[in-house]
Amino acid sequence: MTHSSQDARPHGIHEEGKLYVVDSINDLNKLNLCQTESQHLFPLEEKIPNAGTNPGNGSRGLFFVGLLLVLTVSLAMVFFAIFLIIQTGNQMDDVSRRLTAEGKDIDDLKKINSMIVKRLNQLDSGRN
Fold first, then answer.
1. What pLDDT is attached to residue 84?
2. Taking a C-beta distance cutoff of 8 angstroms, is the pair 33, 12 a contact?
3. Burial status of residue 50 (CB atoms within 10 A of its CB: 0-12, 13-18, 19 or more)
4. 20: helix, coil or strand?
5. Based on C-alpha coordinates, what's the Rg of the chain?
6. Whose CA is closest to 106, among 119, 121, 114?
7. How many CB atoms neighbour CB 31 within 10 A?
C-alpha cells in the first residue's frame, strides 16, 4: 500500500460523491465508476430488517414475555405455599409439645391437689 490517497482517486475531487467498484483489495488503484442505475443496488429496505412487515412477531414476543412472567409468579406462589405448609407444620409440632408438657403439669397439679385434700380431710377428721 505505497499509493497515496491522491493515487486512489484518478478522476479528481469533482467526482467525490460517485460510487466506485473495486475488483479486489490488490486492485484498489483501479477504480471503476459505477453506472447511475447501479447506484441503488442495495435499497434501504434491504439493509434494515423488516420490523413492521410481520405484525405477529411483536405480539408473539409479548405473549411469550407475559407467559414467562405468569409462570415465574406462579412458581413463586407455589414455593411460598410450600414454605407456609412447612412453617405451619413446625408450629403445630411446637403447640402439641407444649400441650403435652402442660398436660403433664396439670396432672401433677391434680395429684398435689388430691394429696392436699386428703391431708386436710385427715386433719379435719383428727380434730373431730
1. 96
2. no
3. exposed
4. strand
5. 47
6. 114
7. 16
Residue 88 makes CB contacts below 8 A (sequence gap 6+) with: none
Which pLDDT value is given to residue 59? 86
Residue 85, pLDDT > 90, answer yes
C-alpha of 52 from chain center: 28
Lowest-confidence range among 7-11, 19-23, 58-62, 103-107?
7-11
Residue 112 has pLDDT above 90, yes or no: yes
Q: Is 11 helix (H, G, I), strand (E, B) or coil?
A: coil
Cα–Cα distance, 99 to 91 (Å, whole number): 12
Give, for 32, the enclosing helix (H) or strand (E).
Answer: strand 32-33
The DSSP string of 35-92 is PGGGGGSS-HHHHS--SSS-HHHHHHHHHHHHHHHHHHHHHHHHHHHHHHHHHHHHHH
